[in-house]
Amino acid sequence: MSTAAKEIKLQITQMDKVYDNGDGVRNINLDVYNGEIVTMLGPSGCGKTTILRTIGGFLNIDAGDITINNQSIAQLPPEKRPTAMVFQSYNLWPHMSIYENLAFGLKLRKIPKDEIARRIDAMLEMVRMPGCEKKYPNQLSGGQQQRIAIARSLLLQPEVLLLDEPFSALDAKIRMQMREELKKIQSELGITVVFVTHDQEEAMAISHRIVVMNKGKFEQVGSPTEVYDNPATKYVASFIGEMNFWNQGNEVIAVRPEDVKILPGHTDNGINGTVRTVMILGHYVDVNVQCGETVIKCFIPRTECGSCDVGDQVHVEFGRNVVFPKDE
């Protein structure tokens, strides 16, 4: 998604939210464009959920501003904001049927009954769960409950949909399906989404842009391709995907396993090593080479691996790589 011609939907400016113990986020600036998925990615405690909750109104900010469509929302309570939030824990009311769960917010908005029914029918079709209106949450699987939670939020037609680790309680296969569903729904509706996760594969899969966070600060903001191919800092390089780090003088060379070549025999002026492990993982082979005190990981297409065995003397060559100062 090109951001050049896009209108800014959500803007966070010079925002601070600091807790009593000194943790939190400071001087946060972010533009989110209309119709894009921006993912806040980082380990637990880095501040990503804090930012999401300030957008949703569940936390008050200490400084700065948050605007949607150029209107400040910083002083509005959650129910008055043009946002909807989906939590990890679904938050469906267990005593209400699926229809009642979905209709609840629309009734509060005084929307006519027949219009509510029409919208719910259309939304259940969109999340691929038609005909489940009379069921109760405990009759649905975790993935189905999360679809209903997302449907309930989308029915409110928010300007910005906020998702707080919504798929982390699901097993791997369902999680992958839900990512695909979310991308499809987001694309069809053209909605703006701010997504929070600690799972870098999830961030790479669903995002137009990723905000990589570390200790309350932004390390890099860019497309999945940008943060993968051109990490701005050593932290980003180590956090996104697999990465080898090779110390050379005052520099550290960062190279992806798929950009490492293994060649037979030792060489006079290259990086020599011994094959430590060989693991066949479907269409590629994961080979670890012990080079001095460093283990270099290589991903080799299965067709090119040949007869690479544990104990073989080899040397490695680096393809595309990024260089960082050693003390970074």
TrEMBL record:
<dbReference type="InterPro" id="IPR003593">
    <property type="entry name" value="AAA+_ATPase"/>
</dbReference>
<dbReference type="InterPro" id="IPR050093">
    <property type="entry name" value="ABC_SmlMolc_Importer"/>
</dbReference>
<dbReference type="GO" id="GO:0022857">
    <property type="term" value="F:transmembrane transporter activity"/>
</dbReference>
<dbReference type="InterPro" id="IPR003439">
    <property type="entry name" value="ABC_transporter-like_ATP-bd"/>
</dbReference>
<dbReference type="GO" id="GO:0005524">
    <property type="term" value="F:ATP binding"/>
</dbReference>
<dbReference type="GO" id="GO:0043190">
    <property type="term" value="C:ATP-binding cassette (ABC) transporter complex"/>
</dbReference>
<dbReference type="InterPro" id="IPR008995">
    <property type="entry name" value="Mo/tungstate-bd_C_term_dom"/>
</dbReference>
<dbReference type="InterPro" id="IPR013611">
    <property type="entry name" value="Transp-assoc_OB_typ2"/>
</dbReference>
<keyword id="KW-0813">Transport</keyword>
<dbReference type="Pfam" id="PF00005">
    <property type="entry name" value="ABC_tran"/>
</dbReference>
<dbReference type="InterPro" id="IPR017871">
    <property type="entry name" value="ABC_transporter-like_CS"/>
</dbReference>
<dbReference type="InterPro" id="IPR027417">
    <property type="entry name" value="P-loop_NTPase"/>
</dbReference>
<keyword id="KW-0547">Nucleotide-binding</keyword>
<dbReference type="GO" id="GO:0015697">
    <property type="term" value="P:quaternary ammonium group transport"/>
</dbReference>
<dbReference type="InterPro" id="IPR012340">
    <property type="entry name" value="NA-bd_OB-fold"/>
</dbReference>
<protein>
    <submittedName>
        <fullName>ABC transporter ATP-binding protein</fullName>
    </submittedName>
</protein>
<dbReference type="Pfam" id="PF08402">
    <property type="entry name" value="TOBE_2"/>
</dbReference>
<keyword id="KW-0067">ATP-binding</keyword>
<dbReference type="GO" id="GO:0016887">
    <property type="term" value="F:ATP hydrolysis activity"/>
</dbReference>
<feature type="domain" description="ABC transporter">
    <location>
        <begin position="10"/>
        <end position="240"/>
    </location>
</feature>
